[in-house]
UniProtKB/TrEMBL annotation, chains A, B:
Belongs to the class-I pyridoxal-phosphate-dependent aminotransferase family. SUPFAM superfamilies: PLP-dependent transferases (SSF53383). It comes from Proteiniclasticum ruminis. This is Aminotransferase. Its cofactor is pyridoxal 5'-phosphate. PROSITE patterns: AA_TRANSFER_CLASS_1.
Length: 396, 396
């Protein structure tokens, strides 16, 4: 009675795998500050629940496989504000960005084919390629370069006969890096030269600091039939639990193909779609306040971390993550040790060991990903705990 | 710029593929009676929306990957009422029964391995095996036998070295057949003799008529580590749009393996889970009224259909589907023709051609699946339209 080889080879989420240690810490009466997960603490805009409360259909019916018309319309207007023109035929509503990624990878890649992904990358990208059965080739990026892409020649050296697509996230989870206009242009050139698709995960589009701008490959007309956009309302509107995502492409053959997958799972949740549609009306002031808050948190975290001796960090410019290198041999052991053995002011911290964000063996062993989805006071305390914990740990 | 071979080979849903013809008919001002889809018209129990309206968390957070504790608890109590004992560790909440099936198939079968499925079967079973990449071998069943299983020897003749699992639905979509205690026992014996898993799709558990009983493989202790149960609230509580399903097993290794898939897509929708949990409180009288209504509809449909000359039908005993054989060469052409060319009392009907429910080429060409999810008056009119349409079509 064996299970499938594929499920045996899949890994548990490295972001969630320390949860039992955090639970044990909480049982001991400690407060655990969660720097491990991208669950925003910002309030969901009230339109969401207000719309749900007004819903008065007697039967909670299946939605259309492509998505509720009102939500498709709302996304079309949202993109229009960014200068990106879509019609209904360019879009499919999905169960979160997660399903959007699976649809894209399944539709574009055969099992023996390869997708290039800059590492470190969101750990579930590996889960999705495992599920779909295609291979990942890592484009290694480095903290010293702010996790920006290597130059064209290095990128080209990674492309093989089996390469079919490049998958990027900008602003990036886990690095917070925003690719420059030139980097996006380079990716477009690679796609044209080597006949590749570009899957662009833009779920953190609004989380960009220091007056920087996000550049989408959707803005480059020459590759418009090669780009597949991944989106989600989870982070933008602090609505992770709604599970509403989207996959978009101007290449109608891709969307039509993905509709087979959409039909097979029938639809995304109906009520959540109706409520998500109302989020387009969220006033600009909401995003301004959210952005200001996150930028302040980033600054607190960055400045605090910078002062810890021997910790390496560069200031990220987007999303709400920061990759830092610790003066510690094994960051995973250290993360477990903190949860099990260390506390200060009756509080401990949970971080995501970064090894799981790298495909290349040996990379990221000393790194952790920190998210700044907790309030400023807790963030300052977390930095203090980290500093003290490093001192204590290295005394051992 | 090719798409993947797998997506190219996948088919569009045969249940939804006539939708454009129905839309065209509606545009002409006709009323279209939908006998094609299992979307119940029964009201969702009011507890669902009442619970949602009381939800007052400020942030719509991710749920646990396994599911909201309150919903797991509610399912545990629901099964207990059926004499099936589960703990939280036996369950994972999924995005509908669809995701539950994908989790099970992916975890149990390698790409070159086979799952036995009685045909005709729910068309999306093929989609899920296509996505997972495993093979289906059909156990052909026949209308003349009420779509019951063949005898043990026939079943055994279909088992190869590559067979890893049997997938059944009882009460069955699309046939409405409920397997007898002896049939379930035979499946258990096969699983023990040939070291197979049994995936049991029981989403129609409450839809059983004529005082019959549903037998679950979960009731057979010798195979308890071989059974994976698929469930959903969609049909039971007329809540298809909630997308809340469940996969259950007493084999903890299977559940632990599937948790990797659950973590990769983060969670099922939070609000819908909280609301679904409240549905356990649905009074018995709700189900009694629903059952009475569906049994009456089945009788109206069955009696009406039986009177149409040359149409072959046996009375089904569960779910809300009926497979009928028409005196027509090609049922799909006929279904399109009705939508395009035929109406009576300004009304036409949409049916699901049954060829797509069969894996074996040539089977089901003259058959259609009818669902009885519309009210009794419309159902009587639908039968009349079908009778007249057959006469008219065969005059051509």
């Amino acid at each position: 009675m064996n299970l499938s080889n594929r499920i045996n080879e899949m890994k548990f989420s490295p972001i969630r795998k320390l949860s039992p240690y955090a639970q044990a810490a909480r049982k001991k009466g400690l407060k655990v500050l969660g720097l491990n997960i991208g669950q925003p603490d910002i309030e969901t805009p009230p339109q969401f629940m207000e719309t749900i409360k007004k819903y008065d259909e007697k039967v909670l019916k299946y939605s259309e496989s492509r998505g509720e018309a009102v939500l498709l319309e709302s996304f079309i207007r949202y993109y229009k504000d960014y200068g990106i023109e879509f019609t209904e035929e360019n879009l499919i509503i999905t169960n979160g960005g997660s399903e959007a990624l699976q649809f894209a990878l399944f539709s574009l890649l055969n099992p023996d084919e390869e997708v290039l992904i800059p590492e470190p990358f969101y750990t579930n990208y590996s889960s999705f390629t495992d599920i779909v059965g295609c291979k990942v080739r890592a484009i290694t990026t480095y903290g010293d370069d702010g996790f920006h892409l290597p130059k064209m020649e290095t990128m080209e050296s990674l492309i093989t006969e089996k390469t079919r697509a490049i998958l990027i996230s900008s602003p990036s989870n886990p690095t917070g890096t925003i690719y420059t206009k030139e980097e996006i242009r380079m990716l477009a050139d690679l796609c044209l030269k080597y006949d590749l698709y570009l899957i662009s995960d833009e779920v953190y589009r609004e989380f960009v600091y220091d007056g920087l701008e996000v550049h989408s490959p959707m803005d480059i007309p020459e590759i418009e039939d090669r780009v597949v956009l991944i989106d989600s309302i989870s982070k933008r509107y602090s609505a992770c639990g709604a599970r509403i995502g989207l996959v978009a492409s101007r290449n109608k053959a891709i969307i039509q193909a993905m509709m087979k997958l959409a039909q097979s799972r029938l639809c995304a949740p109906t009520l959540e779609q109706v409520a998500a549609a109302a989020l387009y009306e969220t006033p600009k002031s909401y995003f301004e306040a959210v952005k200001k808050e996150y930028q302040e948190r980033r600054d607190i975290l960055f400045e605090g971390i910078s002062k810890i001796p021997q910790v390496k960090v560069k200031k990220p410019t987007g999303a709400f993550y920061m990759m830092i290198e610790l003066p510690i041999d094994n960051a995973e052991d250290f993360c477990m040790w903190i949860l099990e053995k260390f506390s200060y002011k009756n509080t401990t911290i949970m971080m995501a060991p970064a090894e799981g964000f790298y495909l290349t063996k040996g990379l990221g062993v000393k790194e952790v990903r920190l998210s700044y989805c907790i309030n400023q006071e807790d963030l300052s305390l977390a930095v203090e705990i980290l500093k003290l914990a490093i001192e204590e740990y290295n005394k051992k």
